[in-house]
Amino acid sequence: MRNMVIIGSGPAGLTAAVYAARANLQPLLIEGKEPGGQLTLTTLVENYPGFADGIMGPDLMDAMRKQAQRFGAELVNSHVHAVKLKEHPFRVYYGDQEVQTKTVVISTGSSAKLIGLETELQLMGHGVSTCATCDGFFYRGKEIAVVGGGDSAMEEATFLTKFATNVSVIHRRDVLRASKIMQDRAMKNPKIHFTYNTVVEEVLGTKQTGVTGLKLRNVRSRDLSELRVDGLFVAIGHNPNTEIFKGQIDLDERGYIKTQPDSTRTNIPGVFACGDVQDPVFRQAITAAGSGCMAAMEAERWLEH
After folding, report:
1. Of 53, 62, 131, 274, which is the active-site residue?
2. What is the pTM of this model?
3. What is the spatial distance between Cα 140 and Cα 190, in angstroms, rounded to a whole number?
4. Per the residue annotation, which of 53, 62, 96, 134 is the catalytic one?
5. Fewest C-beta in 10 Å: which of 34, 132, 147, 154?
6. Catalytic annotation on 62?
């Protein structure tokens, strides 16, 4: 019987582990399929407080992992494939193990939807990004492309015009899905140009050169063309990693875990959710870490009572 099982090892899960371990709860953290979460896909992180010169994403996660272990958190490199949250004690299943626990902290994060190209994965963090707030700064004076047609794509494109000389929005349909206000804002921006009925076939460049361009295909005429850009931002949405919780915990229409206002409490007493799995709005390492701290403190209080 554990006091706490933490599912997921991004900034939220590892911060929860630090706080829970310091409270002598001896938490068990199961890292998941992507130990360290989305930050392990990024290169330089410049907006995490305390690192004046920035820090590499994998290095930041490694430091958090060591910090949690120093205070006595137990980390297991495996992923949770099933949970039973409808009865107490809760049961968590990973590998061929079953563990019983008094509290569960869910920090399974979300995954950015990708186009699905091999070259896109190869150049992730080398000119391909899924986060304008994280990486826009590196494209001062450069030309970039944004793939997508929803609100997040318009928001990212507009944000990127602070740095880039030109932003090309590439959308596979002939109309945008974005709300009218977001469309208007983007269309009024002289730095943003739209390419409709077009998909990215290939991302050009190497890890050494970074992204140098895109191979595009018009979905109607089937014509191929090349666009010279220094970076590609993929903004076609995120999927919260909540598949194993469906039917057991309250999710919103997009699949994010619902938490109570100003809290990480879910609809199940003793189950808490933190980080991107319950935050479709901010999705930053620092906000995830903050909510991980909240989850550990709320779980500790819940155990006391």
Report:
1. 131
2. 0.81
3. 16
4. 134
5. 34
6. no
